[in-house]
Amino acid sequence: MIPRRTKPHNRHNVTLMSKPGCHLCDDARTVIMRVVAEVGAGFEELDITQDAKLHERFWEQIPVTLVDGKQHDFWRVDEARLRKALDA
């Protein structure tokens, strides 16, 4: 998986921890991409299979969403909750 990144227009950044073939990751990515595009937040996606430390930390919870480096959600992305976090 190629890392995806966009630069923020506002002060927030969303990171998606994912792995190839994960349908929940695909669902999370769809929601996140829509929200960050609308609010102007930055986005990056990291493949946990490419980093042993990330894999060890997140493999049971993926997809994991971080907002500004802090864990925000796992398994599912709540769109309203993500919007609220990016509004702050």
The termini sit apart by 31 Å
Count of DSSP strands: 5
Rg, rounded, reads 12 Å
Low-confidence stretches: none
The CATH H-level homologous superfamily:
Glutaredoxin
CATH class: Alpha Beta
Instruction: Report the order of strands and helices.
Output: EEHEHEEH
Portion of residues in beta strands equals: 25-35%
Q: How many H/I helices?
A: 3
Indicate the mean pLDDT.
91
CATH topology: Glutaredoxin
Spatial strand arrangement across the major sheet: 1-3-2-4-5
The residue fraction in helices comes out at 25-40%
- CATH architecture assignment: 3-Layer(aba) Sandwich
Structural class: alpha+beta
**Global morphology:** globular
Structural domains: how many: 1
What's the short version?
The protein is 38% helix and 27% strand. The protein has 88 residues and is α+β, with helices and mostly antiparallel strands. The termini are far apart.
Question: How does this structure look, described?
Answer:
38% of the residues lie in helices and 27% in strands. The protein is α+β, with helices and mostly antiparallel strands. The chain has one domain: 3-Layer(aba) Sandwich (Glutaredoxin).
